[in-house]
Amino acid sequence: MALGYVRPARPEDAGEIARIQLATWRVAYRRILPRHVLDNLDEAFLARRWSAAVQEPPSAAHRVLVAVEQAEQSYLVGFVASGPADAEALAPGEPTDALADGVVAVTDLLVEPRWGRRGHGSRLLSAAVDQWRSDGLGRAVAWVFDGDEATRKFLTSTGWEPDGAARALDVDDLLVPQLRLHVAVPAEETGTP
């Protein structure tokens, strides 16, 4: 088991978050998204977006957490971004009130492949759940690519399941199917005195 921890992202993490996103997408999604789309993603553009997400979130419940691997040096190795569900979390044609208050949407949950299978994804998800619980959010949703077996397997192993919603993203005239997973945010465990 790796030595690691999760902490809130800092403004100076934005460039590293963008690098992790790009590296992970280029490995994990190479058979899902067109190669030229992955090759043309702009790391500087992504870094600016992550900087804004960290420094100017739309609400206090919008958060970016990072996973850190501790060795001789510390490395950022993954991240999770989430916030209250909005129109982006809806399926096509779904009414705007389909995801009621109290639902959080995970927009990104990535661990760089070379750091995978070391507990970072579980630590990120656990830390996020703790924050969702403290924000009073009772259900979580996440869109995953239909062809992303690793993410689906990870999330379903922790209790997530499809909620029946599906959509297809238009990525440079290629429709890429996604399905929405959901899970109840577990109540905080209380110990007996």
TrEMBL record:
GO molecular function annotations of the record: acyltransferase activity
Domain N-acetyltransferase positions: 4-182
UniProt keyword list: Acyltransferase, Transferase
UniProt superkingdom: Bacteria
Keyword check for Zinc: no
Pfam family, one: Acetyltransf_1
Stored InterPro entries: Acyl_CoA_acyltransferase, Bact_Acetyltransf, GNAT_dom
Keyword presence, Acyltransferase: yes
The protein's name: GNAT family N-acetyltransferase
Species assigned in the record: Micromonospora mangrovi
